[in-house]
Every structure is written in C-alpha cells, then in structure tokens.
Amino acid sequence: MAENTSLNYLRNNQKILRVSSLTHLYDAQDSGSSEVSNIGNRVVLPSSFTGGARYMRENYLDAMAIVRAFGHPDLFITFTCNPKWPEILRFLTEDDLKPEDRPDIITGDEYLFGKSLGVVAVIEFQKRGLPHCHLCLFMDKEGRVPTSADIDKIICAEIPDKEEDPDLYSIVADFIMHGPCGTDHPTCPCMIKYKCSKYFPKEFSNETHFDGQGFPVYKRRDDGHFIMKGDTPLDNRNVVAYKKQLSKQFQSHINVEWCNQIGSIKYLFKYINKGPDRISVRIENSDGGKSIQKKKQGKDEIADYYSCRYISACEAARRLFNFPTIYLTPAVYRLSFHLPNHEPIYYDGEEDFESVLSKPTVGASQFIEWMNCNKIDQHARQYTYLEFPRYYVWNSGPRHWTRRKSQLVVARIHFVPPKSGETYYLRILLNKVKGPTCFEDIRTVNGILYDTFKEACYTLGLLDDDREYVASIKDTHAWASGEFCRSLFVSLITTDSLSFPDCVWNETCDLLSDDLHHECPPHVSTTDEAELKKVLYNLVLSKI
After folding, report:
1. Cα distances (Å, whole numbers) of residue 364 to 179, 349, 396, 416, 421
2. Cα–Cα distance, 409 to 407 (Å, whole number)
3. 91 vs 88, 185, 315, 369, CA distance in Å?
4. Nearest CA to 85 among 108, 65, 68?
5. Which CA distances in Å does 226 have to 203, 301, 312, 528?
6. Under 8 Å between Cβ of 210 and 177
7. What global pTM score does this model have?
8. Are 318 and 108 in contact (CB under 8 A)?
9. Which end of the chain, N or C, is less packed with Cβ atoms under 10 Å?
10. Tens digit of pLDDT per residue, the chain (544 long)?
11. Taking a C-beta distance cutoff of 8 angstroms, is the pair 182, 191 a contact?
C-alpha cells in the first residue's frame, strides 16, 4: 500500500520533468518553437525509487566500481535469519505464531563488520521463507587470504569434535549441514535432474587446495565425525563452509566462501537481469478482454514496474521501517560527461525557453567545472577525470569542485556503448588525459589538435587492432550478462565495425560464455580444461 501511494505520487503529483541536451534546446528555439514540453524525454521512475530498474542498475554499477578499485572480493558471506533466535521466539510463543507471521521482527537491521577496504551487501527476499543477506568483503592487505593455509584460518568445512566444542557441534548440526540429498533423498529441493545443484556431497580432501578453475577445495578429512539427519549419517562431505566465530556468535546459517571472481557481485544483483519476483492474475470479460484493452501511449515506466509485481511480507516490512536493502562502502562518485554543448538540461515541461536557457546550471555541469578547476588549480591537473574525486569533492549547490579533506571514495564514469560514436571515444580519452582545461585539450595529442575524439584515440594507439571493441566487451562484461555481451558482439559483426573479428573473438570468447557453464552436458568434466573450453566454444556459437 505504501509503495502504491509513492508510485501514485510520482505519476500524478510530480512536475512534468524532462531532460534534453543543450544543443537540442537551442535548435528547437532557432526553429521557432515556443514550447519545451514536447522536447526531450520524460523522467517517470527515478533512480532514487528503491527497487526500480534505475535504482538496481546504478547500485550495481557502483558495486562494479568498487571491484575495479580494490580487485575481486575476498570473502562471500551468506547470512540467513534464524527463526529460533530468542528475540524472535519471545513474540511468537504467546500467540502461537510462525516466524513468517511477524515480518516486522525478522527483518531487523544487522551488519557484519570486519577489517576491510570495501563492503557490498544486498538483502534478498523470497516469496516464502526468511530474508538473508549476501555480503562481499574486500579485505585490506593484512586480511587477504592468498594461500590455502590462510584460508584454513578463516574458513572451516568440517564437523567439530562433540566433546571439545559441544556448542559449535550443535550449531553445525542445526544450521550448517546440507542434506540429506542425492540417492538418500531424491525429492530434496536441491535435486535437479537427479543431481544436487549445490554439488553435495563434496569429495574428501586432506588439505585445502585450488582446482583447475581457481576455486578452493576446502579441507574435508575423513576423520570419522558424522551427524545424523533422520536415518542418514552426514559426514564432512556435507558441511557447508563456515567461520567458527561467526556461527557461534550469531547461531544461524552463515556460509563463508573464499572468493576470487567477479561473478559474486553479479550474483548479488542478479535481479537486474532476472527481474523482481512476480505473480500473474488475469481477469477477462466474456469478450476475451477486448473491451478493456487500451492503446499504450509511449513507454510507461511505472506500469512496467507494476507489471505482475510481487513484494513479500518481509520485504514490505523492511521497506516500511526504512532499512536499507543495499549497502555499499566506500561511497561511489558517479561522474557524468558530455560532448560540447550536449550537457543534459533538466527542466519543467511548463517552462519557456528563456527561463530554461537562463538557468545558472546551464554551462556549469560537473564535467565542465572539472575543466574549469584545472584552469585555476595546478594541483588538479595531475589527475584524470576518474582519479579526480579522490582529491576533490563536488558541491552541487554552488556547483564547483573543492579540495577533499579526508574520505575514501571510489569514482566511476557513466558507461556508453561503442555505437554512441564521439561520446564513446571521449570516454576512452577521459581515462587517459590528465588536467585538460577545455574540450580542445582532450583532443590534443603531442601538441596537435585533432578534429574528432576518435582521431585523437587513433593517434594515442587506443584503437589499434580493434582494442577499443575488446575493451568495450570487457567493460560491458563487468556489469552485464553473458547474453548481453553476445548481443554486443553480434552488433559489432553485423555493422562491420571490426577489422579483425577473429582476434576479438579469441580475446573475448571466455567472457561471452561465462553464463553457459550450466548448459554443458553432464559428461563434460570441469577438470578437463581443453574439453570444457571446446564445449563452451560451440555453445557460444550456437547462441550467436
């Protein structure tokens, strides 16, 4: 109900906010147009609306900026709410309720802190069941776990001795064990095509080591310890990796995994590509619903968000309490940029040209003020646009940059695809050029002013051998799905953009197939790299 009210407010009470580039406004004025209400795109569902498409996409790109700054996350932690916590049971016993009947209790605000450089956390809700939190931790140099011995200090995958630590043994028995599944329980929810989708039971291992794909194989000794689940004994092969101190402190299912890949961040924000939870109900008249069909007038972002939208009780309670569903640290600066006279201008659709073009924000964009700062501050000229926010802070009120005192931040420049033309080449240069004071400085290489940003890129050697397209696919892979990357590759082929398609294919094939591992036939071994690569190669070709 609260979300419905917010969406109705956005639809009915907000001003008709529109956005257009400065040059388009000037062109419209020169053509004799007297109204600006028909120019530009209308913004309906802003990125500040929690759960919206822009909200999820922007937070995901912020998370990828943290990955770029600190490298791959070190630890991936899944923290699940425990319905048997005493503070929950106190509210349930009197009225004989179930935990899911009190979503206001089980959505409490919990954070795990560690000695880390960055944290990305997402609260995930399901249609049924309890909420759980996924965290990616980026540890500092002292907290890194580069060797198997370091992993053993943090992560355990064995049943503790019942006599030495009975409390931990009880916790592992209640929350950490997986199964029984497989032939012992073929109807278990984790079973897909007669195999456990979580790959349990694992193999015994006398020590922690890494497999051919770089994933850790935790120490699981055949020491005789087991836990009975019904009539089935479960040994160390069925233990979910955990950290002893965390499990004892929170008495809940907390899965701790060593992480060395970017896929963990993509998993956190999988709803960007998967979409939110949905349910569907259809009611029709006797005429098949023809009388209630309406012709759509343009794209309605609110209607798209409403479409079959489902919000669980736990998510609703957390949103009502104003608890965050996404947590990122350090802060991420989103840097905008634009071509000359193409800065975006936001305005009320009821304003006239004179009031829109006379706004103090015109000609004072974040990007232009960066170049103005370089004119007057010698210290600012030694940084690229991406490095600049580490030492300067943008003041949106007076609209200028000032020296930063003390705060760790990460910056990212808005992504644009290769088909954007000059805007795309400008973005490439912004990662290389330091301290420009005007657009001409960005297009100047070795004292020579070039007519286009693309020519400047060529002169700097940034476009040789299709490297800009390889870089574009790699950049896109950092935030998009494999399917989206394959569509980008196809568009580059069909538009004759590539000079050496085979070279681009060889360099990006692994990226184009990163979401196809689950489609490999069961007989393909993950340890045989040559066979696995061949199968994935053919799968990518079939998709393309």
Report:
1. 61, 21, 10, 22, 24
2. 6
3. 6, 34, 19, 56
4. 108
5. 15, 54, 37, 32
6. no
7. 0.75
8. no
9. N
10. 667 777 777 777 655 666 666 666 656 656 655 555 555 555 567 787 887 878 888 888 898 888 888 888 888 888 888 777 776 666 666 666 666 555 555 454 443 434 678 888 888 876 655 788 888 888 887 767 668 888 888 899 999 999 999 999 999 999 999 989 988 888 898 998 888 988 899 999 999 998 877 788 999 999 999 999 988 999 999 999 999 988 998 888 999 998 866 666 666 666 444 555 555 555 555 554 444 444 444 567 777 776 667 777 777 788 888 888 888 989 899 999 999 988 888 777 677 777 777 777 777 899 999 999 999 999 999 999 999 999 999 998 889 999 998 778 899 999 888 778 899 899 999 999 999 999 999 999 999 999 999 899 988 888 766 877 888 888 888 777 788 889 888 888 887 777 778 888 888 988 898 888 777 776 666 667 778 888 888 888 888 8
11. yes
Q: Select from 389, 379, 474, 472 the least CA-distant residue to 425.
A: 472
> Where along the chain do its domains lie?
463-544
Instruction: Take residue 84 and report the two structure tokens written for it.
Output: 């048997």
- Helix, strand, or coil (residue 382): helix
- What's the token pair of residue 194? 């007669």
Residue 347: Cβ-neighbour burial (10 angstroms; 0-12, 13-18, 19+)? buried
